[in-house]
Amino acid sequence: MIRVLILSLCVAFCCVACEETLPGYGSGWRGVQFVLNESSLNPNVYSYSFVGKDENLTLDTVWFTVRPQGMLPKKSSRIKLEQYEGQEWVYIYGNDGLVTDSVLRVLPRQAEAGVHYVSFDDERMAEHLVLEPGQLEARIPVIVLRDESLRDTTYTLFFRIADSEDLTAGDEAHSNIVLRIADCISRPSAWDDWFFAGSWSRVRHEFMIRVTGENWDNTFIESLTREDRQYYLYVINWEMRLENAERAEQGLPPLREDPDDPDSELVFPTVAYW
To answer: Taking the model in full, what pTM does it have?
Structure first.
């Protein structure tokens, strides 16, 4: 009897806990959140570059996927996006290596609405920021602008899903996006620490673009199969040998990541393990 009572109490506690963990599911709660690239080390971080695009292109669109949470919408429901201020903690260490203080600082070079991207309340955005009745997935845009300031600096847009009159922001970890915008060579978010072509550097990236004719941006990188990666490593290493042979004939050292560092010769892997 006691065991039955204890079991009943445990079941009741779990039901209450579930209700608290998933607030609103039983009361018609309707939310929305991003679908992130969970295979990436930084699934919330994305990047876009105008490099390699038509010189006459003045704006472009980066698309993100969202899914409803809780009850599906029964009417056209507005999705609200908002920019927020990117910040980071800076830690101060003592002579003993222990943290003695910390300062919360605002990150520099943050994107500006109307300069680097179209404001989220612009009429061009309105028709896209909607979940239709019964819709299981939607794509929503961020319209990036090709401002002159992007030619030598990467600007970062920190934005998130906010509560609208129709939909609540979903899980916090899936409601925030960091988008880096540039018109110069910059590291794509898909080029992570395990990238098959080696650690990112401007020289490495520029060489790969030059000898393959591809932009090596997120869209291209994410489209590659293992066979594609192995093929491009073969092409890149072949071109690397030709490049260094030509440099040797001119009395120049092999191509380096850092021209002033003789130990920084540009070397590519020969096998794509994944």
So the answer is: 0.74
56 torsion bin: left (phi>0), alpha (psi -120 to 50), beta (else):
alpha
What pLDDT is recorded for position 27? 55
Which tokens go with 203? 């020289």
pLDDT, residue 200, reads: 93
Q: What is the CA radius of gyration of the chain?
A: 24
> What type of residue is 43?
P
Q: Is the pLDDT of residue 217 over 60?
A: yes
Q: What is the mean pLDDT of the chain?
A: 88
In whole angstroms, what is the distance from residue 245 CA to residue 247 CA?
A: 5
Does residue 7 have a pLDDT over 70?
no
* Predicted pLDDT at 213: 87
DSSP annotation of 114 reads T
Residues 6+ apart with CB under 8 A from 183: 49, 50, 51, 146, 147, 150, 151
What is the number of residues in the chain?
274
Structure tokens at 145: 């602008």
Residue-range domains of the chain with CATH = 27-184 (2.60.40.2030), 187-274 (no CATH)
- 35-69 burial code (b ≥16 CB/10 A, e <16): ebbeeeeebbbbbbbbbeeeeeeeebebebebbbb
